[in-house]
Amino acid sequence: MTFIDRHTSGVFIIAATPFTEAGAVDEASIDSLTDFYLGCGVTGMTILGIMGEANKLTAEEARGVASRILRRVDGRIPVVVGVSSPGLDNLKSLSQFAMDQGAAGVMVAPTPGPAVEDRVRGYFHQVCDALGPDVPICLQDFPQTTGVQISTATILTLTRDCPQIVMLKHEDCPGLAKVSAVRNGSATADTPRISILCGNGGLYLPQELARGADGAMTGFAYPEMLVEVVRTHQAGDADRAEDIFDAYLPILRYEQQPGYGLAVRKAVLKHRGAIACSRTRAPGPKLTATDEAELMRLIARTEANVKELSHGS
Question: What positions belong to coiled-coil segments (predicted)?
Fold first, then answer.
């Protein structure tokens, strides 16, 4: 069993949850989507996150999705399971289920409420106590969605105080200075190293890597770009990594539209044959005919840009 740890790096793709036109979980598309991600060369997967519409799944559905993906992956790459919940009992129950099914760790976001430092620290101490010492935790820092700001000082304090917290999913925005601060403040005499994987669609990935991030944890519908950018940057060719990134930038930016990007991502995944239906669960965004035409043009231009880049290499 491979667990996430303080040196985990690469690309952990955040998986969508496919639904049928009727709104049911599409198990066949779960299989094809998992195979698609594996074929793109991702280092790991993160499931039941915000992109996975976890808040729209029943407890039974969430367990079914996690179990099916973990069986399909079959240990080939580590899988992190999002378990955030308003109640610690529910969080603990899903965490235990996920780990028993073969998960590599769990992802936890702070509960909504006042962004008071001692409240945030107290919450994660309770989570660690509830889960025990053997469950690796990825701390999700996504204030745009949770409404909770977590300071660098609190992240570093939790890194020192809670051995289970081994990874930061960084999605604060603007957040480049925070990446630098966390990286420079960890792996010191008194603070252990923490793995940093960054989200926000990968919109700032080259700069995040330059500031010490270990990779990406996001759901961009062209995972092969994330994989190649991280691989090339880690190999020491930052300019080539940015050239690859730039070829995909228009469609990456288009995917990042607040409240709308999930529908775009699912439409791209359907276009690429990864899922059968692009439906999001209600309440959720839906593309218009104009949106679809606009997206198809962006896809065509992206494919042309990538082809030109490949020929020029």
Answer: none
